[in-house]
């Protein structure tokens, strides 16, 4: 029999007593020590890991969207395209992840649902930050975080700045498009209302892509993002209906009915309306 392969023979480092290792760098002791099921149900581990991994991807999405916002503000569109493409890919990843959770049946979920108390994804501050950053703003959604002032502050900081869509519209204004008076509002805390001027600006851009290539490309990056985001909402509501039917949510909403209502939300409404006008 040949001797077992020894990676150190070709230089693999095997001693990490005084060196930074893989798990040191990644702080795996924290990440892998953070799964604490409250019940003995087999599927609770799946439920916890599904949510924790989603939150990690959302953290990256926030990092990318906030950088994209800064880039657009600085008229650096090409880097923003790269970041927005990555955000879409993150959502694609989150969309595929639903296939893992869908392997959990109502019987299996019922075994540990009571342990969740009144906690719910409705209280995910990172999800809310993504919605606020994209442009879907509703100050009522700050309330579940009132008991954590540092999270409220983070969400307030997002609301104090123009959203991704606001920045796209401000960019058009800087480039001579008439986007109406509301584009330059002082208070960014509310979702901007739809405007005929903004629609007309996108219409001009979509009618002459060669002339307005950068704005056209930005518009398509935004549509891509919303397309993937809508699929996430749809996957969520379908999984929810499959697992809890029309039961009320642990967060206190009507459950699947509330989530179906949320399917109607449009992040970048004029970008969808413009299609009808071309
Ligand atoms: C068994 C799986 C799941 C069920 C039954 C479920 C159920 C629900 C329900 C009923 C709501 C409405 C709020 C409430 O009253 O609780 C909700 C909201 C929410 N869930 Fe889930 N959910 C599941 C998995 C997930 C996963 C994996 C995520 C990923 C992070 C997630 C994130 C959210 C978010 C962000 C909201 C707020 C949505 C909004 O306000 O538009 N959920 N969920
Ligand atoms: N709202 C869910 C519970 C739930 O899914 C959940 C509970 C705690 C942490 C995250 C959750 N995920 C999404 O809402 C339910 O009503 O069953």
UniProtKB/TrEMBL annotation:
Keywords: Dioxygenase, Heme, Iron, Metal-binding, Oxidoreductase, Tryptophan catabolism. Heme binds at residue 236. The keyword Glycosyltransferase does not apply. Pfam families: Trp_dioxygenase. Binds 1 heme group per subunit. Its cofactor is heme. Pathway: Amino-acid degradation; L-tryptophan degradation via kynurenine pathway; L-kynurenine from L-tryptophan: step 1/2. It catalyses: L-tryptophan + O2 = N-formyl-L-kynurenine. Coiled coil: none annotated. It is an enzyme of class 1 (oxidoreductase). The keyword Heme applies. Its EC number is 1.13.11.11. Homotetramer. Belongs to the tryptophan 2,3-dioxygenase family. Heme-dependent dioxygenase that catalyzes the oxidative cleavage of the L-tryptophan (L-Trp) pyrrole ring and converts L-tryptophan to N-formyl-L-kynurenine. Catalyzes the oxidative cleavage of the indole moiety. This is Tryptophan 2,3-dioxygenase.
